[in-house]
Amino acid sequence: MIKAENLVRKFGSQVAVNGISFEVKEGENLILLGTSGCGKTTTLRMINRLIEPDSGTVFIDGVDIRSRQPEELRRGIGYVLQNHGLFPHYTVAENIAIVPRLLHWKNTDIRQRADELFHKLNLDPSIAEKYPTALSGGQQQRVGLARSLMVNPPVLLMDEPFGALDNLTRIAIRHEFKALDELVKKTLVMVTHDVQEAFEMGDRICLMDKGEIKQIGTPEELLFSPSNEFVSGFFREQRLQLELKSVLVTEILPGYPEKEITVWEKMEALLHIRNDDSLEEQLKIEDLMRAFLAYKKK
Amino acid sequence: MEQEQSFWQFVVQQSDKLWSQTWAHLGLTLISLIIAIVIAIPLGILITRRQKLSGFVLGFAGILQTIPSIALLGVLIPFLGIGPKPAILALFLYALLPIIRNTYTGIKEVNPAVIEAAKGMGMSKWQVLMKVELPLAFPVLMAGIRTATVINVGVATLAAYIAAGGLGEFIFGGIALNNSNMILAGAIPAALLAIILDFLLSLVQKINFRSIRIAYLVFPFALITLSSFYLLPTQIGGRMLGGFTPEFMGREDGYLGLRKIYKLGIETVVISDAVMYKAAFEKKLDVISGYSTDGRLKAYDLITLKDDKHIFPPYYAAPLVRQEVLDQYPELEGVLNQLSGYINDSTMTAMNYKVDQLKESPEKVALDFTMAHHLYKPARAAGHGTIRIGSKIFGEQYILAQIYKILIRGNTNLNVITKSGLGGTKICFDALTNNQIDFYPEYTGTGFLVLLKPDEKTLKGLAGDIDGVYHYVSREFKHQFNIKWLKPIGFNNAYALMMRREQAQSLQIKTITDLTNHLNQN
Fold it and tell me: Looking at the complex, does the CB of residue A170 fall below 8 Å from at least one CB of chain B?
């Protein structure tokens, strides 16, 4: 779907991106992970031509993006920014309608699609006529996402989409976004510096440093078979939590009825139930932990 | 004395003139503003795109802003002549900086995340500008336009100096003629114009730029532009043109007398004496009202027309001193009177020529003069007291003030400060009566007509009578203001009509009557 080949970009004498190549399959979520200044945002912006590479090429669906008009290209790619980038002089409804209007949609179609997204993103329809400054941070970020999804672009680029939110809101919205059916089908490239976020949202993670890719692979690959010292060092502090998040319960307890649930999520659920004391759960946290440690030894 | 006219009576009596001046003022302000908007906004946008140009453009517009307005007008005369054209250009230049700067700042202050979002969503550069940058910069940009408007209403008063009309005619005429009603009749409408225009623009500032289509703005904009041109004073030209100072226009011994006694029917414009001589030399004006000892007469090869019906009273210069000062420092009177008899018309013209044209400093000219006539003595120790000498804002007065300074420092133990460049007769005289200065050189004719404002009978009885006028002003000033006229210095700096020598000769005009006849024949 997206293929980047040997991208290089300098700003003055500083090399921001130095020979980066990767591929994102259709429907896949790729996370560009790294500290500030590692070149991840520059890489992202080269995909919708907000920044032109000095050398190298990006293909979308096999077509070199340089052969397309930048404006026309961008209208077909959803773009979500850290500071949401909502127009302060437009109401929420008008903000959401920007790209459809650029594509000359009919008003009724715009309204219909907006209603649909409002519903899916748990947005109160009464905010449609409000200006962005009247919204909470979480609402602003949801509106920003709704705006990028309006014309249902196959590709979505997100630049630290949860970066401006407080911790609790961030985790809540992240869970919500992850569960959103609109996002499941999308090819998504997301920039973040938050390791937890990368592990939760990413099918694959591209760990970058100083303009270069240190390792690219699934969360499990990065955790359990780091290809160099930098990669293992990067995850050291949060290692246990990340491991719990990247392993499915079915992997340590084959035949467990709940599929697609990580050990971490199961533990959270169990803690919750214990507090509740209403249900008798057969599985105990201690059992889960023992099974996990046994799995790790293998 | 005649009952003094009330402000309201003045306004009613001059309402035609007041309206035409107000409209002309509005016209000058709006046209220059509109041209400035059309040029400054694109320029402001350009320098947000080409950062390297911004320093240069803003710096240049800033320099324009610091040029004194009257100097700027003077510089423009050789290229654009006199009248509305140079005035509009000058006003336009003054309006540039606030509009360029606020356009630039307004766009620069737009949140970069918003612009990036706009680009990222696929807006073209033009769409980003029109839908995002300009609407968000609009309040700041409008604030710039409002600043420019208020500046322009103020500076447009100076248009009266170069025959472009406007409310400055009343303001400067009033200052020169010591007529407060006239000053207020110009100043109040000018202030109201500034307030009203600013208010109207504040309404525009609140318009939600996006909710109206650009097309709806074009029509009122065009309407204002076109109507502004209509408001301008009609183009001058055609037959001979007279350019007179605001003071001369309002005086019995000036334009009013020329009309009444000579029946002179010449097209006139109001102009400042700072640019009048040059405009005559540049053939923008044919007849001007000058002073007979002015150095520029010599420099621009102008000749004076003989006042064959004696409407211009004598203007002998003499120090005008507060009696209290003479009582406090009795030695002063004798020292000031030393100068009496030393300067005749041609001596004064020659000294004025040195200052006005050869650009010698008044200090040097005064020193050379006192040396040559053995009036100079080295300055004595000061400490006895301080004398404040005033002078009006032209070369001759500067020279006289410097000569008096040398005389006082050389002959007394008094200290001297000069307060030169007091705007006009009224300002100078008010400074004297309000104890801001101790004396200044004044002209008998000015004291007689401008400061005393005698009735018709006195005026007729004394016209052309040199000694009579001097005795009359001496007596009246003592009586009314406790101010003393010392001995006349000797030269007569009277009003005179002037023309270019070659034109006067080719038309065989020597007297004002000749001029009247010539105008009647053509």
Answer: no
